[in-house]
Hints:
The chain has 417 residues and is mostly beta strands. The protein has 1 helix and 21 strands. Helices cover 4% and strands 56% of the residues. The model is unreliable at 1-23 (pLDDT under 50).
Amino acid sequence: MKYHLFAAAVLAAPLALAHPALAAPGDPVALGDGLSLDPIVEGRLRYENVDTPTLDADAVTLRLRAGAELKHKSGLSLLVEGEGTLALTKDYNAFPFAIADSQRRTGYAVVADPMNVELNRLQVQYKSKPLTLTLGRQRINLDDQRWVGSVGWRQNEQTFDALRAEARLGPVNVDATYSLSQRTIFGVDAGPRLAYDGHFTFLGAGAKLGPVNVKGFAYLLDYDPAEQLGALAVTNADTQTYGARATSAFKLAPKLSLNLAASYARQSPWKDNPAHYGADYIAAEAGLGLGPIGMNAGYEKLGSDNGHALQTPMATLHKFNGWADLFLTTPAAGLEDWYGGATVKFPTVKPLPGLNAGVTFHRFESDAGNLHYGDEWDASLGFKLGRANLLAKFADYNAATFGADTRKIWLQVEFAY
């Protein structure tokens, strides 16, 4: 482990100190005749350690993205972006499912960052004040990414081959997407799990009602037949989900703010899903901000009914239910997550701009059966060094009736131009 930490530090140094003369994001190069070109150059070097009672892993991976967006003053644009991930060590299992590939190393714990080279995004977009239309392979992050997201934490991003329309109709914002393919994080060597094809519809409409933003949504997932999906079929992937979300923010004093969020949804079988159930989703969170200090507490329930639990197979799952990632698939008895945490920013520490720290505690219970799954502590520390963002994260899951004790450590440096 000490060797890999040293290797990560050595590799991170040139990235953190480099200052190539490239256009910054949001600062495209003018080409004339109303055209501009915005280069895309991003990199992320990460060390990830996993420690469980039976398996360990040490992964050092480097992800690079490069491309460009050509824009015209009329609102039309074309974006092309490639993505590549290089594994600098082999002491980890890149695939959490059975597959005949050299990156499937069952003697190590899973770190789901396989080596990969792919076309990450290729999209045509028209954008005006009331309307945005995007066609092609694209990044989609909806609301808090609980239902649909880009899985930005993993090195290989999740994208969608889709047509998306975003419009403002008077006081109402409408967001509608039809997708033919979910391009997963597992990359070109993942066999049938490279992408899941089907007919996927994401619908949302929201408005501001006084101090509250409200939104109704529907997610209709119709995957291709199970024989093309492999192990995904066991999650009863064809589902219809309807729900609503509300958020609000209040200024209680010059340096004191209150943020509130609540969601409810109900999920049931759809299309080829033969199961019979109706599972509820409930989430509520309150956050207080006092100058550089933030505190939050919340509850999230992924319900269970008739032996089937609510699933969110297109979500950015690392954002939810603990960073140790024990609950990427909801257990059949469902999941209740009680959590609370605090964050602190240190604006007076000038040598480390953006210095911040955070800690969160989770208590995991079942929705059915009155089971205590386990508890988890998560912590993070981040700051900037030149154009690089540096991050350290830690997760410690203590198992009771679900999974095994799991500790994870991440050291990361990231840059974007």
